[in-house]
């Protein structure tokens, strides 16, 4: 699902075909599509890596975990929708639409973060599903990350509703921050193929 | 196929880009797309889990089983089509189209259930394909589920043709029911990655 | 690639959304889309199974085999294009376009068959790539199948250019024939998951 | 990601449905779509094979390698966009748009090559990630290939900006060259399934 979502993002970049010879301007005009593509690509990429790292700590999966996991996949699979809406609104440069689109993007991104909360919560309460009891230590600091994500995306949504470009900048900052602090892959050396 | 279908559903959510500043209204107006996305996502998710659980009971696959399996995949891969038609008809709020779209969704969903009937039938008659003879007990109660599915989706189609919103409500109820009664993952603990 | 192609076919089924209440007629009007979806789905499904069966006979892959394989994947990945063109032309009911669309579908289907010829040829000449020397017997009768496919699709293209509906009927007959005679899965029992 | 990208390329081939009976002309008119499909399919195919071959030389993956890898996937996933823009511009036959589209295609293709530079650089500096120290010899000649790629695609972009058709011819030449000189699969016999 992660691999497919990350690859589908390209479909929503418009293919301009102006009648007259202003393809260059048309391509430049849709620069928000490129920013949105990159930000969403990296966000899904980080979540993919974290998800992959998470399951190296899990030994067995029960029914509830499967549903929690499906919820995480649903939020991830949904991301191309707000990405496309945001890119379009920014290209149109209509302030009211930009506000709404930034808020929508923040909402879905926040839900993507929120979907991790029950995962960590459930695993802390059912340590027998973990690969080893030591993995519990891994989950305690990790449990804060999705809460931070929800808080920051709520903030970005509110700020972005007032000033869309500040909201957009916040998305870029947050994805960069996520990328550099991602616990799941911190310094570890794994003998498997990367995601 | 399940992973791809579940991820393709997002493509059919419209990307509104109104000229004037009424993006919020445009987004709200297409609320049926979101309901349809969620209902179809969960339905494919449940079928995916059941399909995955099913194949843990199967040891070897013969030619006939492969064809039955391809039929199941075909019905699943088809689901984004009635999902999109239904969402569009509900957004238009044209009563006649809503009736037809609800009936179409019920038809394809019913066929998705029906595609499981020959699978269970064939496995009961060819127990040597199963991982262990005990698995036969698993298939007897399971064999009733697709029949119930076909009956309920036929009912939902007929009711929905008379009153589309009742039909839609029935889809939501049925997916919730499926999610909670899914035999395939009931209480079991498996040592594999979730679907 | 097979799984993705088979699932992408659904995207090309039109999502009708008539302004007035004639959704039923619009859905019925595009019946060729459903036939084309089913025929192409089964064709890719058969090729997928044969491809899967083929690689159980191959022990190692060299550079040339990889290129031959990429050619097979290219022809398969292309199939949704003539499928969509054919469905659209049949829905329009314009005789000249139907002829062209049937010929195009026959061309790509024939190329899909043709792509298997170098595969069998190469493996017969490089038996050290096979899992066992006995597998050579498997490849001798199989080698005739793609040649038959090319001949029949050429015939279907020519006949279809004269009478599109006869051409379409030939596609259905051929896919049915392929499905029932597919060597790759004949009566064999394999201990792997189906495609 | 490679498999999905390679299969998504077909979506951007237009599905012409002219009102009158000139489907044949409409299909011929969009010949650049077919050339662009084939060139991009082979390019992604070559990169896929090289990527696959590369990871047979890598024993373990650290955080930095994962990010470098994600960058390579991002450039690959982006390719359908310039492919579609180029095909459309060539079909329109507007000189100014053709120049821009060829330059855009060269830019993304060049970035796809450039994304391999940090990969080889990082592996040369961290040989403990390799499967065996002998693999270092493999990476020294390979390290020149992406640099050549970047140089040639820059050249193709500049030349193509002056004469689009010469640029297009250069793309075809380069993909052919890549296909025949691809180190990753040169003469080697591997016991795995092809990509």
Which key features would you list for this structure?
74% helix, elongated, 195 residues, disordered C terminus, homotetramer, mainly alpha, 10 helices
Describe what this molecule looks like in 3D:
Four copies of one chain form a homotetramer. With 195 residues, chain A is mainly α. Chain A has helices at residues 2-8, 23-29, 31-56, 63-78, 80-92, 95-114, 116-125, 135-142, 144-162, 164-181. In chain A, helix 3 (31-56) packs parallel to helix 10 and helix 6 packs antiparallel against helix 9. The longest helix of chain A has 26 residues, at 31-56. Mean pLDDT of chain A is 81; it is low at 184-195. Chains in contact: A-B, A-D, B-C, C-D. The A-B interface holds A 1, 4-5, 8, 11-12, 55, 59-63, 65-67, 69-70, 73-74, 77-78, 80-81, 84-85, 88-89, 92, 94-97, 100-101, 104, 129 and B 3-4, 6-11, 13, 15-24, 27, 37-38, 41-42, 45, 49, 179, 182, 185-195.
Secondary structure layout plus pairing:
4 copies of one chain form a homotetramer.
Chain A: H1 2-8, H2 23-29, H3 31-56, H4 63-78, H5 80-92, H6 95-114, H7 116-125, H8 135-142, H9 144-162, H10 164-181
Helix pairs in contact in A: 1-3, 3-5, 3-10, 4-6, 4-7, 5-6, 6-9, 6-10, 9-10
Largest sheet of chain A: none
Give average pLDDT of chain A, whole number: 81
Order of helices and strands of chain A: HHHHHHHHHH
- Please state the CA-atom Rg of chain A, rounded to the nearest Å: 18 Å
Q: What shape does the CA trace of chain A take?
A: elongated
Distance between the termini of chain A: 12 Å
Strand content of chain A: under 5%
- Helical content of chain A stands at over 70%
Unreliable stretches of chain A, pLDDT < 50, 5 or more residues? Answer: 184-195
Largest interface: A-B, 36 and 39 residues
What is the multimeric organization of the chains shown? Answer: homotetramer
Give me the secondary-structure category of chain A.
mainly alpha
């Amino acid at each position: 699902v992660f691999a497919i979502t990350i690859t589908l993002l390209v479909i929503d970049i418009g293919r301009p075909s102006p009648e007259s010879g202003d393809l260059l301007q048309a391509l430049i005009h849709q620069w928000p599509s490129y920013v949105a593509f990159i930000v969403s690509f990296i966000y899904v990429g980080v979540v993919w890596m974290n998800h992959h790292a998470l399951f190296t700590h899990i030994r067995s999966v029960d029914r509830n975990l499967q549903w929690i996991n499906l919820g995480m996949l649903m939020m991830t699979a949904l991301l191309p929708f707000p990405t496309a809406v945001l890119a379009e609104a920014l290209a149109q440069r209509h302030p009211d639409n930009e506000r709404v689109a930034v808020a929508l993007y923040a909402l879905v991104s926040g839900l993507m973060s929120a979907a991790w909360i029950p995962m960590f919560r459930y695993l802390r309460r059912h340590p027998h599903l973990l690969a080893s009891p030591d993995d519990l230590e891994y989950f305690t600091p990790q449990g804060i990350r999705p809460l931070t994500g929800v808080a920051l995306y709520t903030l970005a949504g509110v700020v972005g509703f007032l000033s869309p470009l500040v909201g957009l900048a916040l998305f870029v900052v947050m994805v960069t921050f996520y990328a550099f602090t991602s616990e799941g892959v911190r310094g570890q050396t794994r003998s498997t193929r990367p995601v």
